[in-house]
Every structure is written in C-alpha cells, then in structure tokens.
User: Fold this.
Amino acid sequence: MKQSLSRRTVLTKLGLAAVAAAAAPAVNAAKTTVQKVLVKTEAPKDYDPTQHKWQMAFDVNRCIGCGHCVEACKQENNVPIGPYYRTWIERYIVTKPEPRSAETRGEVRVDSPEGGIHGFNDVPVPEADILQSFFVPKLCNLCEHSPCVQSCPVGATFDTPDGAVLVDPKYCIGCGFCIQACPYGCRFMNPITHTAEKCTLCYHRISRGLKPACVEVCPTQARIFGDLKNPVPDDPLQEFFKKNRVQTLKPHLGTDPRVQYANIDKEVR
Assistant:
C-alpha cells in the first residue's frame, strides 16, 4: 500500500541520486548483468526467463476477503511487521441511493484494515443500506510500461524477460522515486533495509515451478496464475480468459498492466 514521503526526505536523497548518476556507466552495466542472470531473484541456475511469460489474474466474484493471501505473502517474503504489504485486499461497499433520488447507487466506501490480513469483521454501514459489496485483491500490476522503472535513477528497478518487475536491493539507494511514481500504490520503503520493496510474484518460487504463495493458499481460486508461453492441460489461466471479459486498473494511464481482473466494478481504482 502506498506510503507518503516528505518533500524534505526526497530532496535530501536527491543528493544520493546525483552521486549515483555520476556513476551511471557502471550502474547501467550492473543493471544489464542483473537482467541477464537475475542474480538477486534466487532463480535456479538452469532457469531461462526468456522461455516464460508469467501472468496473474483475479476473479473478483470469487474473493471472500479472508486475508489468507496477505498473511502467506508476509510470511513467505519476510515482509516487515506493520503497515507494509506486497499484496492486500480492499473492500468496496456501495450504498443504496437516497429515497426519491435519480441516482442508481449511493456513495462508495473503500477500506482495507491492516491490509485485510485478518479479514473483514465489522461492516461500517447498516446491512439494509448496502446495495453491493465485494473484495478486490491488489498487488504490483506488472506494467508493460512501468513508471517505477522509468523513474529509478540507478536502474535498481527493472523488467525481466518473463514479465516480472523486480527491485535489486544491492543497487537501490532508497530515494523513493519509484514509490511516488507508482500509480497503483504497490510499493513501500522497507524500514529495515531502507530499500524499495514490492510484489515479485514470489520469483524464487515461480522460477522453480511453484505458484506464488498468495495463489497457493487462496481457498476459492480467486487468484489465477500461469505461464502464457507454457500452458498446461486444462490450464486455469487459459480457461479464465476464455470465460471472462477481463479489465485492467487505470487503463487510461497507458502503463499497460499485465495483471487482469474479471467481474470488476467501475468504482474500483
């Protein structure tokens, strides 16, 4: 979930960015190396990223807001305790319109207590006033044209050939530019390492043929994950695309997200 950085903090770190820019040739060379061998992803030596294209999709109708995915992600990826999430769940509550109103719906309330990790027990409005409610899982949108990659002054954030967007903490200077640039609020500053962090699709798992932790624990199969270059028999990802009309978040921004949603309401942002 998105965190704010003070203007003073950003300006202070601009000095670090300037120093890093002076070493741009060396940094660019390092970035090229990271892109080729993926040294910080813990991928197996025989893993070839050019032979895969990973895709994440969501069926909003299936999400029950249990929070198991958030908890699994925290444990699997050592996400710090507190308001730090690589994935989280938002609850949308659409109220009924006022009596004799010309509107077809009332106001929309969105909440995500503790990222939804403990589920959603309290309903903030009387049930009789609710027109519609649903849960929306969120994570890195894996943009084809990533603002975070474009804004990183040292090349620490980069696209991989198989569709992931990763952060190399070895080169990250903690300037926070990528956090500010992400229009989906998917990045945060790790309070322990002081480097930017986000969803990696559990790269250490998928490069070994396993599913991301959040997908593995989802009890309703609301999260659908697969490899577009290597479909399997009865591939759930291919079936999902055949049966659903899919959408992306904030398509008007031109980021071309690779994360797709089905049965999503117009109010989701």
In short: The first strand starts at residue 54 and ends at 59.
